[in-house]
Amino acid sequence: MYNNQEANAMFAPQGSNFQGPSAPPSSMFDNVPGYEGTGMGGGAGGYLPPPTPAYPPPAPAPAPTQPEWNIPSISEDTAREAFGLFASNHCCWSKAPAKDGVTTSMDAFNTYRYRLETFTESRSTEWDHEEYNGQPVDAYTQPAPGPWDIHVQAPGHFEDHTEHVKVPYTSSVKDCHACMGMGKKPCTECAGAGNKVCWVCSGAGVRTGDDQCTHCNGRGRENCSHCQGHGSQQCDSCNGKRQLLVYIKLIVKWTNNKEDFVVEQSSGLKVENLSSVSGKELFRDTQYLVYPVMGFPDPAVAQATERLVRDHQAKYSQSSRILQQRQTIELIPITKVSYKWKGNTHTYFVFGNEFQVSADEYPATCCCTVM
Ligand SMILES: [Zn+2]
Ligand SMILES: [Zn+2]
Ligand SMILES: [Zn+2]
Question: What ranges does the record give for the region Disordered, renumbered to this chain (predicted)?
Fold first, then answer.
């Protein structure tokens, strides 16, 4: 089974030191009512649970009556064509088994894939800063709205997306902590001296013999090229502006949490193969909150839909707001084809709407020896 949430967690930022050693001290942050727990960023802060809605949301309702669940099958011609194409895509393989093999049997091992997608919005906050260029300064002019009261336009449903928004009434101006409000810092190349030892004479002022060093005119030192001899460089925290706009940043994250359940089948085809193909869509239901699929003939699917719907609604309503759910059932065609070639029996699989082929034991994988 595929779990998108786990994959996301693996790539979440580690630790909170992305701002490096120049992270501002916490004394720079005002106390904003409603935002007391806001940290300094780096992804360490937890998500803010959404408030309980003022009125209960509509209860999930069963989807309309299901269509007939029928199972298609593929013809021998379709299978052979897909197999031939598959063999010719492997440049070193002999085409002979695909061309001359005699089909002895075709068995359908069609399977169902149930997929549940839960589209959520989550919100978190952290302090942030940027160079001050005369932006509006509004801290304390009004109480800051709660993190879930700020209107942020959502993207289309089931699309992952992140937005950063300045929380209104939290912006203030502070002297830059990195340069103490100077706008510049000592040059790191010359440690603020503006010059360094001449690289030609190594500081002696003379070269071999008594000739004066022409590079430094006998001074033994040369101007620092990094700071043009000034000994300082622009502060990169405030970009030389001396002041910073400090504010609380609201991070709004929309995530499509997708989970698949594939009914086990006994064909021998590995289930991983199926993630790259689509099937025939038998059922689709999109609602604010879906209700488990009713009356599906395969008991494994019926159980999976109950379990996943319950799990998702419990899990994702804790720290995020569920905006929409979608569930689908696909029938993925799998045909196991057995064929005879040079007296031996071999098999291959044709699966998915795309007629993808898997043949782990193709009998002639090197055209140079088997012809
Ligand atoms: Zn010199
Ligand atoms: Zn320098
Ligand atoms: Zn600065």
Answer: 40-64
- Cβ-contact 351, 336 below 8 angstroms: no
Which residues does the chain have with pLDDT short of 50? 1-21, 44, 370-371
Q: Would residue 192 be called left, alpha or beta, if left means φ above 0 and alpha means ψ between -120 and 50 degrees?
A: left
Cα-flanking dihedrals φ and ψ of residue 103, to 5°?
-65, 125
Task: Give the per-residue pLDDT at 11.
Answer: 39
CA-to-CA dists, residue 63 to 71, 173, 247, 325, angstroms: 22, 55, 46, 13
Nearest ligand to the C-alpha atom of residue 240: 3
CA 117, 123, 129, 131 dihedral sign is positive
The burial class, CB within 10 Å (0-12 / 13-18 / 19+), for 16 is: middle
pTM, two decimals, is 0.71
Dist CA 252 CA 95 (whole Å): 54
| pLDDT in the model for residue 4 | 43
Question: How high is the pLDDT of residue 14?
Answer: 38
Tokens 């942050």 appear where? 29
Q: What is the 196 CA–ligand 1 centroid distance (Å)?
A: 10
Are residues 92 and 369 in contact, defined by beta-carbon separation less than 8 angstroms?
no
